[in-house]
Amino acid sequence: MKVAAPAAILTTKRLILRPFREEDDKDVFAYAKDDETTRYLTWPAHRDVAESAWAIRTFFLKPGVWAICKAEDEVCIGCIELRTGNDPVDFGYVLRKDLWGCGYMTEALRAVLDEAFAHLKLDKVTGAHEQGNNASASVMRKCGMHWFARKDHVQVSPVKFADMEYYEITEEQWNADRRRR
Ligand SMILES: CC(C)(COP(=O)(O)OP(=O)(O)OC[C@H]1O[C@@H](n2cnc3c(N)ncnc32)[C@H](O)[C@@H]1OP(=O)(O)O)[C@@H](O)C(=O)NCCC(=O)NCCS
């Protein structure tokens, strides 16, 4: 199914999700350089700012990829992507380590799910995390997503295999959950 382009900017109480800019390279490097942050991701930590600049140019400058910024300064503190080309549509996210545990990614994912269901009219969105990535599991659960499968030894990149847990949420579940909040 062809999906419309997601909105360029999404706002929440504390965050602005905006398109990446080439000038975000140093701020991307600030989170992407850390091995603990990339432990459960499909790509290894960046070695220098030039690698972050290359990642921005190659992967981030397209609709559905947002720089997560605090509303007060618009400095990029992470990334969230809604992969509308995938069937079913899924997402990925990462946040700067010193800001973990403040509820920012839950806030960002809720905004992206709202965009997915209210604007893009998707029926379902899925998410996946590596076994052991309990913070990511918690974010998905807090956003009303439901676990539905586990698969071992999945090829998640050309060079990486991982044991994965899968979550999903339908438009109906999202709207019911939103009414409860
Ligand atoms: C996963 C990630 C995006 C979460 O972002 P965040 O802004 O810290 O998430 P939130 O604060 O909204 O929620 C995190 C929840 O996980 C909990 N948590 C954090 N570390 C945890 C751990 N090791 N075990 C269990 N729960 C954990 C937090 O307490 C919080 O739950 P709570 O609100 O009920 O207390 C962030 O940790 C990150 O960028 N990790 C590295 C990249 C990554 O793994 N991305 C996901 C790939 S699937």
What does this structure look like?
The chain is globular, with a radius of gyration of 16 Å. The strands form 2 sheets. It has a 5-stranded antiparallel beta sheet, with helices on both faces. A 3-stranded antiparallel beta sheet has the order 6-8-7. It has 181 residues and is α+β, with helices and mostly antiparallel strands. The chain has a single domain (10-180), classed as Aminopeptidase (3-Layer(aba) Sandwich), CATH 3.40.630.30. The chain has helices at residues 25-32, 35-38, 49-60, 104-119, 134-142, 171-180, and strands at residues 10-11, 15-18, 65-70, 76-83, 90-95, 124-130, 146-157, 160-170. The chain binds coenzyme A (COA). Coenzyme A is lined by residues 37, 40-41, 93-95, 100-106, 129, 133-136, 138-139.
Which CATH-level-2 architecture?
3-Layer(aba) Sandwich
- Rg: 16 Å
Low-pLDDT ranges: none
How much of the sequence is in beta strands? Answer: 25-35%
Multimeric state: single chain
The tally of structural domains comes to 1
Give the rounded overall mean pLDDT. 97
CATH superfamily, called what?
A: Gcn5-related N-acetyltransferase (GNAT)
Ends apart, CA distance between termini: 30 Å
Ligands present: coenzyme A
CATH names the topology as Aminopeptidase
Question: Which terms would index this structure?
Answer:
8 strands, five-stranded antiparallel sheet, 31% strand, Aminopeptidase, three-stranded antiparallel sheet, alpha+beta, 181 residues, single chain, binds coenzyme A
